[in-house]
Write a structure and sequence with these properties.
The chain has two helices and no strands. The protein has about 45 residues and is mainly α. The longest helix has 19 residues.
Length: about 45
């Protein structure tokens, strides 16, 4: 089963600040890539 749920860490991600969101894009991308790798590893 693919895990697609992400829990938002409110100490790391500031969702009400547009500048912070822009700077956090790399963190979101890394979360997605890591989860994709985990799901591929579970599949094998």
């Amino acid at each position: 089963m693919k895990t697609t749920l992400f829990m938002n860490d409110f100490d790391t991600f500031y969702r009400y600040d547009p500048i912070a969101i822009t700077e956090q894009i790399d963190l979101f991308v890394n979360m997605l890539l890591t989860r994709t790798a985990e799901n591929k590893a579970k599949k094998n």
